[in-house]
Amino acid sequence: AQRLSRKTILITGASSGIGRATALEFMRTAPDVRIIATARRVDVLEMLKAEIREAAPMVEVLVARLDVSDAADVKRFWEELPAEWRDQLDILVNNAGLVKGLEHVGDIAEEDVDIMYSTNVTGLINMTQAAVKIFKARNTGTVINVGSIAGREPYPGGSIYCSTKAAVRAFTESMRKELINTRIRVAVVDPGQVETEFSLVRFRGDKEKADAVYAGVEPLTGQDIAEVVVFVAGRRENVVIADTLVFPSHQGGTASMYRKA
Ligand code: NDP
Ligand code: 8X3
Fold this sequence. Notes:
By secondary structure, this protein is an alpha/beta fold. The chain has 9 helices and 9 strands.
Protein backbone atom coordinates (compact mmCIF):
# COMPACT_ATOMS: atom_id res chain seq x y z
CA ALA A 1 0.00 0.00 0.00
CA GLN A 2 2.84 2.36 0.91
CA ARG A 3 4.54 1.82 -2.43
CA LEU A 4 1.39 2.73 -4.34
CA SER A 5 0.58 5.74 -2.18
CA ARG A 6 -0.21 8.85 -4.31
CA LYS A 7 0.64 7.01 -7.54
CA THR A 8 -1.10 8.18 -10.70
CA ILE A 9 -2.63 5.26 -12.59
CA LEU A 10 -4.23 5.26 -16.03
CA ILE A 11 -6.59 2.37 -16.78
CA THR A 12 -8.11 1.76 -20.22
CA GLY A 13 -11.45 -0.04 -20.34
CA ALA A 14 -12.29 0.93 -16.75
CA SER A 15 -16.04 0.85 -17.38
CA SER A 16 -16.44 -2.91 -17.03
CA GLY A 17 -14.99 -6.24 -15.97
CA ILE A 18 -11.28 -6.44 -15.24
CA GLY A 19 -10.61 -2.71 -15.76
CA ARG A 20 -13.35 -1.60 -13.40
CA ALA A 21 -12.26 -4.13 -10.78
CA THR A 22 -8.67 -2.94 -11.16
CA ALA A 23 -9.64 0.66 -10.39
CA LEU A 24 -11.45 -0.49 -7.24
CA GLU A 25 -8.57 -2.75 -6.18
CA PHE A 26 -6.04 0.10 -6.50
CA MET A 27 -8.42 2.17 -4.37
CA ARG A 28 -8.64 -0.53 -1.69
CA THR A 29 -4.89 -1.14 -1.66
CA ALA A 30 -3.84 2.51 -1.50
CA PRO A 31 -6.77 4.77 -0.62
CA ASP A 32 -4.93 7.90 -1.78
CA VAL A 33 -4.07 6.91 -5.36
CA ARG A 34 -4.96 9.03 -8.37
CA ILE A 35 -6.90 7.14 -11.03
CA ILE A 36 -7.46 8.17 -14.63
CA ALA A 37 -10.45 6.03 -15.58
CA THR A 38 -10.97 5.81 -19.33
CA ALA A 39 -13.36 4.05 -21.71
CA ARG A 40 -15.95 4.95 -24.35
CA ARG A 41 -18.87 4.82 -21.88
CA VAL A 42 -18.26 7.84 -19.66
CA ASP A 43 -21.67 7.60 -17.96
CA VAL A 44 -20.59 4.28 -16.47
CA LEU A 45 -17.22 5.75 -15.51
CA GLU A 46 -18.99 8.58 -13.69
CA MET A 47 -20.85 5.97 -11.61
CA LEU A 48 -17.53 4.31 -10.81
CA LYS A 49 -16.11 7.67 -9.77
CA ALA A 50 -19.06 8.25 -7.42
CA GLU A 51 -18.60 4.78 -5.94
CA ILE A 52 -14.90 5.45 -5.32
CA ARG A 53 -15.57 8.89 -3.84
CA GLU A 54 -18.01 7.30 -1.40
CA ALA A 55 -15.65 4.49 -0.37
CA ALA A 56 -12.34 6.37 -0.41
CA PRO A 57 -12.67 10.15 -0.44
CA MET A 58 -8.88 10.63 -0.68
CA VAL A 59 -8.69 8.87 -4.03
CA GLU A 60 -8.70 11.35 -6.90
CA VAL A 61 -10.50 10.12 -10.01
CA LEU A 62 -10.32 11.71 -13.43
CA VAL A 63 -12.90 10.34 -15.84
CA ALA A 64 -12.01 10.65 -19.50
CA ARG A 65 -13.71 9.44 -22.64
CA LEU A 66 -11.26 7.52 -24.77
CA ASP A 67 -11.72 5.23 -27.73
CA VAL A 68 -8.36 3.51 -28.01
CA SER A 69 -9.26 2.06 -31.42
CA ASP A 70 -9.23 5.56 -32.92
CA ALA A 71 -5.70 6.94 -33.26
CA ALA A 72 -7.01 10.51 -33.53
CA ASP A 73 -8.97 10.08 -30.32
CA VAL A 74 -5.90 8.72 -28.52
CA LYS A 75 -3.96 11.80 -29.67
CA ARG A 76 -6.78 14.11 -28.52
CA PHE A 77 -6.92 12.32 -25.15
CA TRP A 78 -3.22 12.88 -24.41
CA GLU A 79 -3.40 16.50 -25.57
CA GLU A 80 -6.39 17.21 -23.33
CA LEU A 81 -5.07 15.34 -20.30
CA PRO A 82 -4.22 18.02 -17.71
CA ALA A 83 -0.47 18.35 -17.10
CA GLU A 84 -0.81 17.56 -13.38
CA TRP A 85 -2.08 14.12 -14.39
CA ARG A 86 -0.07 13.51 -17.56
CA ASP A 87 3.34 14.49 -16.24
CA GLN A 88 2.92 12.51 -13.03
CA LEU A 89 1.75 9.29 -14.64
CA ASP A 90 3.24 6.28 -12.83
CA ILE A 91 1.31 3.25 -14.08
CA LEU A 92 -0.45 2.45 -17.34
CA VAL A 93 -2.82 -0.53 -17.34
CA ASN A 94 -3.61 -1.39 -20.96
CA ASN A 95 -6.77 -3.39 -20.35
CA ALA A 96 -9.25 -2.24 -23.03
CA GLY A 97 -9.88 -5.07 -25.44
CA LEU A 98 -12.54 -7.14 -27.09
CA VAL A 99 -13.43 -10.15 -29.15
CA LYS A 100 -16.09 -10.43 -31.85
CA GLY A 101 -17.57 -13.74 -32.94
CA LEU A 102 -16.22 -17.23 -33.45
CA GLU A 103 -16.21 -17.23 -37.26
CA HIS A 104 -13.59 -19.21 -39.10
CA VAL A 105 -11.05 -17.76 -41.52
CA GLY A 106 -12.77 -16.92 -44.81
CA ASP A 107 -15.99 -15.93 -43.08
CA ILE A 108 -14.77 -13.20 -40.73
CA ALA A 109 -16.29 -9.76 -41.36
CA GLU A 110 -13.69 -7.16 -42.25
CA GLU A 111 -15.11 -4.80 -39.63
CA ASP A 112 -14.58 -7.44 -36.91
CA VAL A 113 -10.95 -7.85 -37.96
CA ASP A 114 -10.55 -4.08 -37.90
CA ILE A 115 -12.12 -3.49 -34.49
CA MET A 116 -10.15 -6.28 -32.79
CA TYR A 117 -6.82 -5.17 -34.26
CA SER A 118 -7.40 -1.44 -33.81
CA THR A 119 -8.49 -1.90 -30.18
CA ASN A 120 -6.37 -4.77 -28.87
CA VAL A 121 -3.18 -4.04 -30.82
CA THR A 122 -2.91 -0.57 -32.37
CA GLY A 123 -4.79 1.06 -29.50
CA LEU A 124 -2.55 -0.58 -26.92
CA ILE A 125 0.56 0.39 -28.89
CA ASN A 126 -0.53 4.03 -29.27
CA MET A 127 -1.33 4.34 -25.56
CA THR A 128 1.97 2.74 -24.63
CA GLN A 129 4.07 4.94 -26.89
CA ALA A 130 2.62 8.07 -25.32
CA ALA A 131 3.08 6.77 -21.76
CA VAL A 132 6.62 5.53 -22.32
CA LYS A 133 7.70 9.01 -23.49
CA ILE A 134 6.50 10.37 -20.14
CA PHE A 135 8.12 7.50 -18.21
CA LYS A 136 11.45 7.98 -20.02
CA ALA A 137 11.56 11.66 -19.07
CA ARG A 138 11.38 10.66 -15.37
CA ASN A 139 13.13 7.27 -15.71
CA THR A 140 10.31 5.57 -13.84
CA GLY A 141 6.94 4.00 -14.58
CA THR A 142 5.14 0.72 -15.10
CA VAL A 143 3.25 -0.63 -18.10
CA ILE A 144 0.94 -3.56 -17.41
CA ASN A 145 -0.66 -5.11 -20.48
CA VAL A 146 -3.64 -7.42 -20.25
CA GLY A 147 -3.00 -10.23 -22.70
CA SER A 148 -4.77 -13.60 -22.66
CA ILE A 149 -4.23 -17.35 -22.66
CA ALA A 150 -5.56 -16.88 -26.22
CA GLY A 151 -2.26 -15.26 -27.16
CA ARG A 152 -0.35 -18.38 -26.10
CA GLU A 153 -2.74 -21.09 -27.24
CA PRO A 154 -4.71 -20.13 -30.34
CA TYR A 155 -8.02 -21.94 -30.85
CA PRO A 156 -10.40 -22.52 -33.77
CA GLY A 157 -12.80 -19.60 -34.10
CA GLY A 158 -10.29 -17.27 -32.47
CA SER A 159 -7.82 -16.56 -35.26
CA ILE A 160 -8.15 -12.80 -35.08
CA TYR A 161 -8.54 -12.40 -31.32
CA CYS A 162 -5.77 -14.92 -30.55
CA SER A 163 -3.39 -13.24 -32.98
CA THR A 164 -4.10 -9.82 -31.42
CA LYS A 165 -3.14 -11.21 -28.03
CA ALA A 166 -0.03 -12.89 -29.46
CA ALA A 167 0.86 -9.44 -30.81
CA VAL A 168 0.41 -7.94 -27.34
CA ARG A 169 2.76 -10.59 -25.95
CA ALA A 170 5.49 -9.96 -28.56
CA PHE A 171 5.15 -6.17 -28.32
CA THR A 172 5.41 -6.32 -24.55
CA GLU A 173 8.50 -8.50 -24.60
CA SER A 174 10.34 -6.36 -27.16
CA MET A 175 9.60 -3.27 -25.14
CA ARG A 176 10.73 -4.82 -21.88
CA LYS A 177 14.06 -5.70 -23.49
CA GLU A 178 14.40 -2.22 -25.00
CA LEU A 179 13.92 -0.66 -21.58
CA ILE A 180 16.31 -2.74 -19.48
CA ASN A 181 18.66 0.21 -19.07
CA THR A 182 15.88 2.22 -17.46
CA ARG A 183 13.81 1.91 -14.29
CA ILE A 184 10.67 1.45 -16.38
CA ARG A 185 8.90 -1.86 -15.74
CA VAL A 186 6.92 -3.76 -18.35
CA ALA A 187 4.60 -6.66 -17.57
CA VAL A 188 1.93 -8.77 -19.21
CA VAL A 189 -0.87 -10.50 -17.32
CA ASP A 190 -2.61 -13.28 -19.26
CA PRO A 191 -6.01 -14.23 -17.83
CA GLY A 192 -7.83 -17.45 -18.60
CA GLN A 193 -11.60 -17.47 -18.35
CA VAL A 194 -13.04 -14.45 -16.55
CA GLU A 195 -16.76 -13.73 -16.32
CA THR A 196 -17.24 -10.13 -17.49
CA GLU A 197 -19.02 -8.50 -20.43
CA PHE A 198 -16.40 -10.17 -22.65
CA SER A 199 -18.69 -12.97 -23.93
CA LEU A 200 -21.66 -10.61 -24.26
CA VAL A 201 -19.51 -8.50 -26.58
CA ARG A 202 -18.26 -11.61 -28.43
CA PHE A 203 -21.84 -12.74 -29.09
CA ARG A 204 -23.02 -9.22 -29.99
CA GLY A 205 -25.35 -8.80 -27.01
CA ASP A 206 -26.85 -12.33 -27.05
CA LYS A 207 -27.05 -12.95 -23.30
CA GLU A 208 -28.12 -16.58 -23.62
CA LYS A 209 -25.04 -17.44 -25.66
CA ALA A 210 -22.82 -15.45 -23.31
CA ASP A 211 -24.23 -17.14 -20.21
CA ALA A 212 -23.77 -20.58 -21.80
CA VAL A 213 -19.99 -19.99 -21.84
CA TYR A 214 -19.96 -19.87 -18.04
CA ALA A 215 -22.64 -22.50 -17.35
CA GLY A 216 -21.36 -25.43 -15.32
CA VAL A 217 -17.93 -23.92 -14.68
CA GLU A 218 -16.58 -21.51 -12.13
CA PRO A 219 -14.80 -18.74 -14.02
CA LEU A 220 -12.50 -16.14 -12.51
CA THR A 221 -13.93 -12.75 -11.62
CA GLY A 222 -12.59 -9.38 -12.68
CA GLN A 223 -11.50 -8.98 -9.07
CA ASP A 224 -9.24 -12.04 -9.31
CA ILE A 225 -7.28 -10.47 -12.17
CA ALA A 226 -7.39 -7.02 -10.58
CA GLU A 227 -5.61 -8.41 -7.51
CA VAL A 228 -2.82 -9.75 -9.74
CA VAL A 229 -2.47 -6.46 -11.64
CA VAL A 230 -2.26 -4.46 -8.41
CA PHE A 231 0.22 -6.96 -6.94
CA VAL A 232 2.44 -6.58 -10.01
CA ALA A 233 2.21 -2.79 -9.76
CA GLY A 234 2.92 -2.72 -6.03
CA ARG A 235 6.25 -4.59 -5.95
CA ARG A 236 9.53 -2.90 -5.10
CA GLU A 237 10.79 -0.87 -8.09
CA ASN A 238 13.50 -3.45 -8.84
CA VAL A 239 10.99 -6.29 -9.10
CA VAL A 240 9.40 -7.02 -12.47
CA ILE A 241 6.76 -9.72 -12.57
CA ALA A 242 7.24 -9.89 -16.28
CA ASP A 243 4.73 -12.53 -17.27
CA THR A 244 1.76 -14.08 -15.46
CA LEU A 245 -0.81 -16.70 -16.54
CA VAL A 246 -3.95 -16.95 -14.39
CA PHE A 247 -6.55 -19.73 -14.71
CA PRO A 248 -9.60 -20.77 -12.76
CA SER A 249 -8.87 -24.21 -11.37
CA HIS A 250 -11.08 -25.99 -13.92
CA GLN A 251 -9.19 -24.58 -16.89
CA GLY A 252 -6.11 -26.12 -18.47
CA GLY A 253 -5.93 -24.09 -21.67
CA THR A 254 -8.19 -22.39 -24.17
CA ALA A 255 -9.67 -25.57 -25.70
CA SER A 256 -11.28 -26.62 -22.43
CA MET A 257 -13.50 -23.58 -22.63
CA TYR A 258 -15.29 -24.97 -25.65
CA ARG A 259 -15.67 -28.58 -24.56
CA LYS A 260 -19.39 -28.11 -24.06
CA ALA A 261 -20.01 -26.79 -27.59
P1 NDP B 1 -15.37 -6.34 -20.66
O1 NDP B 1 -16.11 -6.40 -21.96
O2 NDP B 1 -16.13 -6.51 -19.42
O3 NDP B 1 -14.54 -4.99 -20.57
C1 NDP B 1 -13.84 -4.48 -21.69
C2 NDP B 1 -13.49 -3.03 -21.44
O4 NDP B 1 -12.79 -2.54 -22.58
C3 NDP B 1 -14.72 -2.17 -21.25
O5 NDP B 1 -14.49 -1.29 -20.18
C4 NDP B 1 -14.81 -1.40 -22.56
O6 NDP B 1 -15.32 -0.10 -22.30
C5 NDP B 1 -13.35 -1.32 -22.97
N1 NDP B 1 -13.20 -1.09 -24.40
C6 NDP B 1 -13.60 -1.86 -25.42
N2 NDP B 1 -13.31 -1.26 -26.59
C7 NDP B 1 -12.73 -0.07 -26.28
C8 NDP B 1 -12.23 1.00 -27.04
N3 NDP B 1 -12.25 0.99 -28.38
N4 NDP B 1 -11.70 2.07 -26.40
C9 NDP B 1 -11.68 2.09 -25.05
N5 NDP B 1 -12.13 1.11 -24.27
C10 NDP B 1 -12.66 0.05 -24.89
O7 NDP B 1 -14.24 -7.45 -20.78
P2 NDP B 1 -13.01 -7.86 -19.83
O8 NDP B 1 -12.97 -7.08 -18.61
O9 NDP B 1 -13.05 -9.32 -19.73
O10 NDP B 1 -11.80 -7.48 -20.78
C11 NDP B 1 -10.68 -6.73 -20.37
C12 NDP B 1 -9.44 -7.28 -21.05
O11 NDP B 1 -9.22 -8.61 -20.59
C13 NDP B 1 -9.51 -7.36 -22.57
O12 NDP B 1 -8.28 -6.94 -23.11
C14 NDP B 1 -9.72 -8.85 -22.82
O13 NDP B 1 -9.23 -9.25 -24.07
C15 NDP B 1 -8.92 -9.44 -21.69
N6 NDP B 1 -9.21 -10.82 -21.34
C16 NDP B 1 -10.47 -11.18 -20.94
C17 NDP B 1 -10.72 -12.50 -20.61
C18 NDP B 1 -12.07 -12.99 -20.23
O14 NDP B 1 -12.30 -14.22 -20.22
N7 NDP B 1 -13.00 -12.12 -19.89
C19 NDP B 1 -9.65 -13.51 -20.64
C20 NDP B 1 -8.38 -13.01 -21.08
C21 NDP B 1 -8.18 -11.71 -21.40
P3 NDP B 1 -16.30 0.73 -23.26
O15 NDP B 1 -17.20 -0.26 -23.94
O16 NDP B 1 -17.02 1.63 -22.29
O17 NDP B 1 -15.40 1.47 -24.16
C1 8X3 C 1 -10.28 -14.52 -23.37
C2 8X3 C 1 -10.16 -15.99 -23.18
O1 8X3 C 1 -10.03 -18.19 -24.41
O2 8X3 C 1 -12.11 -16.93 -24.61
O3 8X3 C 1 -9.10 -13.93 -23.70
O4 8X3 C 1 -10.17 -16.24 -25.78
S1 8X3 C 1 -10.64 -16.85 -24.57
